[in-house]
Write a structure and sequence with these properties.
The protein contains 25 helices and 3 strands. It has about 525 residues and is mainly alpha-helical. Strands 1-3-2 form a 3-stranded mixed sheet, sandwiched between helices. A hairpin with a 3-residue loop joins strand 2 and strand 3. It is globular, with a radius of gyration of 24 Å.
C-alpha cells in the first residue's frame, strides 16, 4: 500500500526527462542532452529521488555523520573544476560498497564504502570521481541515452506490480515494492552508464581535485585496487562483488593509469596545485602556479570516529553491534575510535551506565571532542543524570548556538521528558536553525515533535507538513497545510507562511494527479 509514492517518483522522473525545457538552455556540452533538463529540473529530479529514498528508509541521516560528509564533500566540490556547482551529499545505510551521482549534484555514498576504506583519502577519492561525473555533465548525457529505454522500463515495472498485487500475501507486496525499486534502479543505472572515456575523465579530474584538496592523489588507485581484490575474491565466495563495480568497472589498466596520474601530480613542486604541466587558469602564463590554500593534510580529522559511528548505526540491531565490537576487542586492543563506537553501541543497546563510564574515560583523554561529548550527554541523560547532560549541552550551545548536531541531540533528549516545559526549551534550542532547515527532514521531524509537546499546534503543523513533503508525500503535506490554515490559532504571519508553502507544493501535487497518481493513504480516508 506504500507503493504509490515511489511509483509517482518514477513516473515523474520519466515525465521530466520527456518534457522539453521551459527555461534557459544549458551551455552546449557536445550533445543534445542540455536541451532535456534545465538546472532547475535537474535539482527537482535529485530532490525527488532523495525523498523516495528517505521514505523507504534507505538513508542514514545522523547529524554528526551528515556534518562529516558535508565537510568532506564541500571541500572536494570547492576544489573541483566547477566550484560554482551545487552539491547535496548523503549517506545510504547499506553496507554494500557503492556510491553514485545523479542529476542536480546529488551524490550518495553507501556506508559500506566508508567501512571498507582504510583512510579518509580513499573515501575522498571515490567522492571526487563522482563530483567529476557531475561537473562534466556525464549524468545529464546519461539521461539522453536513457530516453530510448524509459517507456519499456515503465511498462515492465507496471506489469510486475500488477502481477505482484494480484496476491494478497505479504510476499506479494514485497514483490511489488522490489519490482518498482528494481525499475528505478535500472533507470538510475541507465543514467550513469558511463562510457570508458567518461570514466577516464572522471578519474583524471578526480585525482586533480584530490590533490587540490590536499588529499593523497594515490588514494584513488589504492581503493580501486581494494575493489579489484574483492572482486577476485568473490570467485572464491569470500565477498559479494562490490556494487560500485557494476557501473564503474575497474581494470588493471585503469589502476595503472590512476597511479601514473597521481605520480605526475606528486612530482610537481611541493606546495603548489593545478593541472600537471601548468596552471588551470587560462588567463595566467604557462607554467605559473598558485600556492595551495592552507588546508589540513589529515582531512577532516573525524574519519575514524565517523566510520565507527557508521558501523553502529548500520548494524541490524544494537545487540549485533555490541557483539561486533566484542569480536574486534577479542583480537586486540580497541583504539580510541573503536572505544567510542563500542560505547555508542552499548548506549543504543540500553546499557547507558556502561556507556557513560567508557565515554567519561574517553573524554578525559580527548577533552572537548564533540563526538564523545554528545554521546556522553546522551548516556548521562539515559542513566538518570539529566542535570549533568543539560549542563554539558547548554555549554556546547553557548559556544556554538548554530551547532546542528548539538541542538538536535539536546532537543531529542528534552522531547523524551514529554513535558510542556521541556518542549518549549527544545523549541528555543532549535529556533536558531529554523531559517536554514527547509530541506532538513531530521530537523523538521524533531521540531514537529517538540512543538507538539510544547502545545504549539501551528508550528507543529507546519513542521509535520514539511516532514511529509521531504518524505515524498506532497499531497499529504498539502492536505495538512490546508487543514492547518483553518485553525483559529493561525495569525496573520503564520497564515502568510502557510499559504506560501501551499502555493509552492501545489504544482507538484497537480502533476501527480495529471499522471493519475494519488496518495493511497489519503484515498483510504
Amino acid at each position: 500500500m506504500r507503493i504509490a509514492p515511489l511509483t509517482a517518483a518514477l513516473v515523474l522522473a520519466l515525465a521530466s526527462v520527456c518534457a522539453p525545457a521551459q527555461e534557459t538552455r544549458l551551455p552546449d556540452i557536445g550533445s543534445s542532452a542540455g536541451e532535456l533538463l534545465t538546472p532547475a529540473r535537474q535539482e527537482q529530479y535529485g530532490a525527488m529521488m532523495l525523498a523516495q529514498l528517505r521514505q523507504y528508509d534507505y538513508l542514514l541521516e545522523d547529524p554528526l555523520l551528515d556534518q562529516w560528509l558535508d565537510a568532506l564533500g564541500n571541500r572536494l566540490a570547492t576544489h573541483s573544476d566547477q566550484p560554482g556547482q551545487s552539491f547535496n551529499f548523503f549517506l545510504i545505510k547499506q553496507r554494500q560498497i557503492n556510491a553514485f551521482a545523479t542529476l542536480g549534484g546529488y551524490i550518495g555514498v553507501n556506508a559500506g564504502l566508508v567501512l571498507a576504506a582504510e583512510r579518509e583519502d580513499e573515501v575522498a577519492a571515490v567522492m571526487a570521481h563522482e563530483v567529476a561525473h557531475v561537473t562534466q555533465h556525464h549524468v545529464l548525457r546519461g539521461v539522453e541515452r536513457a530516453q530510448r529505454d524509459q517507456l519499456p522500463i515503465l511498462l515492465a515495472m507496471l506489469g510486475a506490480v500488477a502481477a505482484a498485487s494480484a496476491s494478497d500475501s505479504r510476499s506479494g507486496g514485497n514483490a511489488a515494492q522490489a519490482a518498482i525499486i528494481s525499475a528505478m534502479g535500472l533507470m538510475q543505472q541507465r543514467q550513469i552508464d558511463y562510457t570508458r572515456s567518461n570514466e577516464h575523465e572522471a578519474d583524471r579530474l578526480g585525482i586533480q581535485t584530490l590533490a587540490r584538496s590536499q588529499y593523497d592523489p594515490v588514494a584513488m588507485a589504492d581503493f580501486f585496487g581494494t575493489l579489484q581484490t574483492r572482486s577476485r575474491a568473490n570467485a572464491a565466495g569470500y565477498y559479494d562483488t562490490p556494487e560500485y563495480l557494476m557501473t564503474h568497472p575497474v581494470t588493471t589498466t585503469r589502476i595503472t593509469e590512476a597511479k601514473q596520474r597521481a605520480e605526475q601530480i606528486a612530482a610537481a613542486p611541493r606546495g603548489f596545485t593545478g593541472s600537471v604541466g601548468g596552471s588551470d587558469n587560462p588567463l595566467l602564463p604557462e607554467g605559473f602556479r598558485l600556492p595551495a590554500p592552507g588546508l589540513r593534510s589529515e582531512g577532516t580529522g573525524d574519519f575514524e570516529f565517523a566510520r565507527e559511528r557508521m558501523r553502529v548505526l548500520t548494524a541490524n540491531t544494537p545487540g549485533e553491534a555490541v557483539r561486533e565490537y566484542a569480536q574486534i576487542q577479542a583480537s586486540g586492543t580497541l583504539d580510541a575510535a573503536q572505544q567510542y563506537g563500542f560505547a555508542v553501541a552499548r548506549l543504543r543497546d540500553n546499557q547507558a551506565t556502561a556507556a557513560r563510564e567508557s565515554l567519561q574515560q574517553l573524554l578525559e583523554a580527548r577533552p572537548g571532542d564533540p563526538w564523545v561529548t554528545l554521546a556522553l550527554a546522551e548516556a548521562e541523560a539515559r542513566s538518570g543524570r539529566s542535570a549533568s547532560a543539560d549542563s554539558r549541552l547548554e555549554a556546547l550551545l553557548r559556544n556554538s548556538p548554530n551547532d546542528r548536531a548539538a541542538a538536535l541531540t539536546y532537543a531529542a533528549l528534552l522531547a523524551e521528558r514529554n513535558s510542556e516545559e521541556a518542549g518549549k526549551r527544545a523549541q528555543a534550542v532549535l529556533r536558531p536553525l529554523l531559517g536554514q532547515s527547509d530541506e532538513d527532514a531530521v530537523f523538521q521531524r524533531t521540531f514537529a515533535r517538540v512543538s507538539d509537546i510544547a502545545g504549539d499546534v501551528v508550528r507543529a503543523g507546519e513542521a509535520h507538513a514539511e516532514a511529509a513533503f521531504l518524505n515524498g508525500r506532497p499531497e499529504q503535506a498539502l492536505v495538512q497545510l490546508n487543514t492547518l490554515k483553518q485553525r483559529p490559532e493561525v495569525d496573520y504571519y503564520a497564515r502568510a507562511r502557510i499559504e506560501s508553502r501551499i502555493a509552492a507544493i501545489t504544482p507538484t501535487v497537480l502533476e501527480l494527479k495529471r499522471q493519475g497518481i494519488r496518495d493511497e493513504d489519503l484515498g483510504r480516508r
